[in-house]
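Hi R.,

Here's the chain you asked about this morning:
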Amino acid sequence: MKFNTLVCLLLVSFNFGCSSSDPVLPGAREMLDGSAAKEKEDRFIIDSLPALNLPPEKLNSKWTHRGGNAQHNPGHPLLGDKLELVWKASIGKGNSRRHQIASSPVLEASRIFTLDSRSLVTAVDLDGTIIWQRDVGDKFEGRDDASGGGLAIKDGQLFVTTGFGTVQSLSSETGDIVWSQDLASYGGASPTVFGDLLYISARSGSAWAIETKTGRIRWQVAGPSSRSSFVGGPGAAVNDKYALFPFGSGDVFAVFRKGGLPSWNSVLSGARLGRSAGYVQDVTGQPVIDSDLVYLSNSAGRMAALDLKTGQRKWTSNQGSQGDILTSGQSVFFVSDENKLIRVSKLDGSIIWSNQLPHFTKKSLKRRTDIFAHYGPILAGGRLILASSDRMLREFDPADGTLISSTRLSYGAASSPIVVEGTLYLLTLDGALLAFR
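And the predicted structure, written out as tokens:
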């Protein structure tokens, strides 16, 4: 009996093993890469466009921070049409797998200052001549051991944060080190200088106010820690009364800038499904102070407008940003976390138009791993200007998002452009500073 049962079981198993394969389901095969099965429209625009109400163009003489100034609100610099390359200068090492340029240039008193991917600071004259260079890397570690950092300048003092967790003050005339402070942090977020204090939002979850003349710590605020954040993070936004510190956790702390007493805090939370970067809550669009509101965003599909005094949220958008936010007139402009150039209303965050930019570096669905980086936008000469890692400098009509012109770069862009005295400057991935006029 047991033998017969065993034979039957073996025969059944044999029949299953030799049976035909499962039926093939009909329909097209789609990649599970989080990019949705159906491609979206490249362009969107509402039927009735609201007025732009842009401020008039002004000839500016300096660009002191990432984002132009301590409020990250640079206004509308004067810039001529039909940009052409006038010079190019090497400022050190470019991007690699382990290192990247994380700082835009700053400019004061007719000198441009840059930071390469290996902690080398370079001062350049307006004709492209190198004036001096200073290595601000850690003395006890190799230059290749860290990346990231930022620049800010005020009254001849150049402030530099590094990926080694230090901040240094240099003489803009000679490059000599005035003082150095070890923050025991990482990532090198952009510094912000206002009055006699330097404000730094450390990537490790703390905020600092440092005396610009001596390098002494005036006060410190403990913020939330984060498991992940972007190298070379956003800087604090500061005005006469408040300092707003962004953290890798997505939190933003508003404190009274002189004494560090807390005023309010808020958090941007969300997740863009299907993208690893979409789960990082870090504030990528550094806070922008515009009148009585502050605007900020992350790469996880969130943007918000908050009351500067109370932190009360005026509106929230399901569009995040890859980089900094530009506010002008009654509009907010940014490159979204899905690489769309977007204009939204300041009043409620509703989309006025969007324009799809080059996104994945590879067209094949199976090879969609890397995306292009688009730096900006900035507003100059009545146009929105973007510098991109696909070797293009693009100019758009801010009213409806129409592409006006494109300029081919010798190498992919590595920083947001800046505009001073009618000239546009940007850094490229090979470690070069370019000037267009």
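The chain has one domain: 49-436.

Let me know if you need anything else.
M.
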